[in-house]
Automatic annotation (TrEMBL):
Residues 1-21, 73-92 are annotated as: Disordered. Pfam families: MLTR_LBD. Residues 14-65 form the MmyB-like transcription regulator ligand binding domain. It comes from Nocardia fusca. The lineage of its organism: Bacteria, Bacillati, Actinomycetota, Actinomycetes, Mycobacteriales. Residues 1-10 have a biased composition (Polar residues). This is MmyB-like transcription regulator ligand binding domain-containing protein. InterPro entries: MLTR_LBD (IPR041413). Transmembrane segments: none annotated.
């Protein structure tokens, strides 16, 4: 990728740094990612872009997270109540 390019909004951006990173997610474990940091020309704003590291199972893990969302697979089911519990006045 060239050192400077235009984003979708037409603003000039410059690539500052690329690196590989690993994140540990409680449901899927370690996810290996490639990270690229893009800066605005005056370096006042940063955009971090993460994508799955090729040759790993990161893409499959990220797809699973897209499907399960924020639900916890190990959390016990909580009962759902249709109305709040009644409170008795015991001051009388």
């Amino acid at each position: 990728m060239p050192p400077a390019s235009r984003s979708a909004s037409g603003c000039a951006t410059a690539i500052r740094h690329s690196d590989t990173k690993s994140a540990v997610h409680p449901e899927v474990g370690v996810i290996d990612m490639f990270c690229e940091t893009m800066l605005t020309p005056n370096a006042t704003q940063r955009l971090l872009i993460y994508w799955p590291l090729p040759g790993t199972d990161a893409a499959e893990k990220m797809e699973l997270l897209r499907v399960i969302g924020t639900q916890r697979l190990d959390a016990p089911e909580r009962p759902s109540y249709s109305r709040p519990a009644e409170v008795n006045d015991i001051s009388a």
